Q: What sequence folds into this?
């Protein structure tokens, strides 16, 4: 994460300093110092107690949910060789049986996951999210890189949101293309500004490193999904997890049968969607789980 993330924050810091220097050297120094120490706000704002965390996540499981979740949580943590208090379990409102992992050792399930998921799928979901936490040793570096890239992320997020508003979710390829085109436009505009203020070399480096950072971070995110899936298989919940993912195949942009029997254009579009996504396609994850489960057996 450090390797793929550092060029953009450095160049943005230099760009801020150059903009300040247009007014005066003193402003350039002030902007650069404020920019460097701004991460202190991130550290201070990071939740440290359950009371603070409660502001970020809805609630702890209620009595009825605890009756279902506590045995599943205990069994999963034991299977991983961990104590029940190694991480914390939370519930949020939301559509569908989903889960997530947050910094601070938090596993968050949707309220719908508790009554809707069979026991083996619920344990698979818990193991998957815990797997993310077990592999998140670089979370602080990720958050710092995320923070220092705010001047780039904000316009990218704006065009992404706009592209998704004006395109249909069902037209996955069109939506992905609109997002990619909008983000490319932002990068080109920022590079032109950098060219004017810092020179052509800095502009080329910014454009190139921003592109590399984007695709590398997406690849790291997809890899973390495969790694968390491996944790599920390693603790013996692979069958339940495969069943859970099978229900989520409807979120793939196109059925695997069409992709595999399709033309070169279909396969190229599938690759285009994949490399622009934070999660691998569900059918690829199911295949990987099946292979790992067979190897484990």
A:
């Amino acid at each position: 994460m450090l390797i793929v993330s550092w060029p953009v924050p450095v160049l943005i810091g230099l760009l801020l300093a150059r903009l300040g220097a247009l007014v005066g050297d003193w402003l350039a120094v002030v902007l650069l110092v404020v920019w460097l120490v701004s991460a202190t706000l991130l550290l201070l704002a990071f939740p440290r107690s359950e009371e603070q965390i409660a502001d970020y996540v809805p609630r702890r499981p209620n009595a009825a949910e605890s009756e279902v979740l506590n045995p599943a949580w205990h069994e999963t943590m034991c299977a991983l060789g961990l104590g029940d208090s190694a991480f914390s379990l939370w519930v949020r409102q939301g559509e569908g049986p989903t889960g997530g992992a947050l910094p601070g050792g938090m596993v968050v399930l949707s309220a719908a996951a508790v009554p809707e998921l069979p026991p083996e799928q619920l344990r698979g979901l818990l193991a998957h999210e815990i797997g993310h936490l077990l592999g998140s040793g670089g979370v602080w570096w990720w958050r710092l890189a995320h923070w220092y890239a705010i001047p780039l992320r904000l316009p990218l997020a704006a065009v992404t949101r706009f592209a998704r508003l004006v395109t249909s979710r069902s037209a996955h390829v069109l939506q992905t293309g609109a997002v990619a085109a909008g983000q490319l436009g932002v990068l080109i505009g920022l590079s032109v500004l950098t060219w004017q203020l810092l020179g052509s070399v800095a502009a080329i480096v910014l454009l190139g490193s921003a592109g590399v950072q984007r695709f590398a971070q997406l690849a790291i995110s997809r890899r973390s999904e495969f790694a968390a899936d491996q944790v599920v298989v390693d603790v013996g919940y692979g069958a339940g997890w495969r069943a859970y993912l099978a229900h989520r195949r409807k979120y793939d942009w196109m059925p695997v049968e069409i992709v595999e029997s399709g033309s070169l254009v279909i396969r190229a579009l599938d690759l285009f969607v994949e490399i622009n996504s934070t999660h691998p396609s569900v059918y690829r994850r199911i295949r990987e789980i099946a292979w790992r489960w067979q190897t484990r057996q």
About this structure: The radius of gyration is 22 Å. The chain is about 70% helix and 5% strand. Confidence is low (pLDDT under 50) at residues 47-56. The first strand starts at residue 88 and ends at 92.
